[in-house]
């Protein structure tokens, strides 16, 4: 993990064989992922190897809205949000391969073997390491299966296998013709 791979330019429509960077900052991530505060759960990408692996971080602060109720006096990041952070890191990896990503959204199709080993608290830095286990792309559909691990320091705090699919943003929305039926 000491070496960072070059990361493709985050601008939509940019050829991935073009400009490269040593990582993605929050501004680049916002160009790739549709998520926004309070649901954007990655702050920086440290390493990205196309269609293979991504390493991202989430700085966990006491200002996170979920800490107000989970749990008062003992703030612990919900495990489901750690899995979501793993999925968002994987989504950033997947979406860097898609030129028309502004017209797409990544959705979960499965979560398997989720395990939570240690609590994540304010002040922790969550390091998310996600590896692609399967990738399929045919016209009109891209899907991936990924294995993700979350660490605080050198301690593994969570892991999960996640699968997702890239769909058109318009898919699933009620059409005007069907409204009111």
Structural overview:
It is a single chain. With 181 residues, this protein is mainly β. It has one domain (7-168): Roll (Thiol Ester Dehydrase, Chain A), CATH 3.10.129.10. It has helices at 26-32, 79-95, and strands spanning 7-8, 20-21, 44-49, 53-59, 104-116, 125-138, 141-152, 155-168. It has a 6-stranded antiparallel β-sheet with strand order 3-4-6-7-8-5, with helices on one face. Strands 1-2 form a two-stranded antiparallel sheet. A hairpin with a 2-residue loop joins strand 6 and strand 7.
Task: Give a concise summary.
The protein contains 2 helices and 8 strands.
Terminal CA distance reads 55 Å
Uncertain runs: 1-8, 11-20, 175-181
SSE sequence, one letter per element = EEHEEHEEEE
Task: Give the quaternary arrangement of the chains.
Answer: single chain
How many distinct beta strands? 8
| Overall form | globular
The proportion of strand residues reads 35-45%
| Rg over alpha carbons | 17 Å
Tell me the domain tally: 1
What would CATH call the architecture?
Answer: Roll
Helix content: 10-25%
**Assigned CATH superfamily:** Hotdog Thioesterase
Structural category is mainly beta
């Amino acid at each position: 993990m000491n070496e960072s791979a070059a990361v493709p330019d985050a601008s939509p429509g940019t050829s991935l064989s073009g400009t490269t960077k040593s990582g993605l900052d929050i501004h680049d991530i916002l160009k790739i992922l549709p998520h926004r505060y309070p649901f954007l759960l990655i702050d920086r990408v440290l390493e990205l190897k196309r269609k293979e692996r991504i390493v991202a971080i989430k700085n966990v602060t006491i200002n996170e809205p979920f800490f107000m109720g989970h749990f008062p006096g003992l703030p612990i990041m919900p495990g489901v949000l750690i899995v979501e952070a793993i999925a968002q890191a994987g989504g950033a990896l997947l979406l860097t391969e898609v030129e028309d990503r502004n017209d797409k959204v990544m959705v979960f199709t499965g979560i398997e073997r989720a395990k939570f080993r240690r609590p994540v608290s304010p002040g922790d830095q969550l390091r998310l390491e996600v590896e692609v286990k399967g990738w399929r792309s045919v016209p009109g559909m891209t899907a991936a299966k990924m294995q993700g691990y979350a660490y605080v320091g050198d301690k593994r705090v969570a892991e999960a296998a996640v699968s997702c699919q890239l769909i058109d943003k318009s898919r699933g929305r009620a059409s005007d013709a069907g409204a009111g039926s």
